[in-house]
# Entry
Amino acid sequence: MHDPTIGVLDLGDASVRSVVVDGIHAPLTVRVSPSLEGISLAGDLASVRIEGVPTHAPLVQLWGDSGQGLLEGCDWAGRLEISDAPSLDLLPLSRMRSLRELTVRNVYGPVTGCSAIAAVAKLERVSFMRCYDIDVAGFPNHQALPNLTWISFDDIGAADAKVLRTRIDGFWNGHVRHARSRGWLAANTDNPFRTWDKDGAELHDGATTLWKHAQSRLTHATSIETRTAIIQDFAVALEQLCREHLLDTLRREQAAEAVSALARTHLGDGHHLARWTLE
# Structure
């Protein structure tokens, strides 16, 4: 867990092969070592910077809003996984000359800059999961990627799926699955727990019910005291649900962000619930 009082994590002179930092909610600079083989960062990543160049092309995992600057600092990545970002610009991929594998998952806002994928000559595997607004107009045909061995689009919007099927038409190992209708997208795209169905219906339905109930109550709340009480009730109930299901770090981060997002919207950035975390 990131200590917000630490602004620089200097690993440049250490023989550190793997780095995991979660709970990031403050500016952070990570200086990586030449021997790095993998780095995983989770939280608010918009103000995170990476310095240094590993000798080999390691795995980079980014969980949260990464921003363009962070991607530009990882242009040495061999495998890149981006998850749970509100939106994503892929233009920095054009600088990633060593990139062999790209995974993008759980991005519910626009995924733009897809034309940059064509510039990644070494790219072998491409996977998009639970992304509902992909820049399909700029997405290259499979022929533009001479080393491609696998390309998959799973759980995407039906309109995007229609176009992407033409991009991979004729490729021996291309897949488009679970195209979502407009009705499904309208009902689910603002639900922060939409991906929890992978962990079972009980957890997903419980968290979704709490979220929708809080949203419904907030639409009728006229005072800050009432709005505070509603969001506090939501936080308490969500924390109890998380305890019952023994959630992993990622799910706990998502639960905390759901509460914080409500608080920022209805109470302001300065309210203590805007910085709420699971105990």
Q: What stands out?
A: The longest helix spans residues 224-245. Residues 194-275 form one domain.
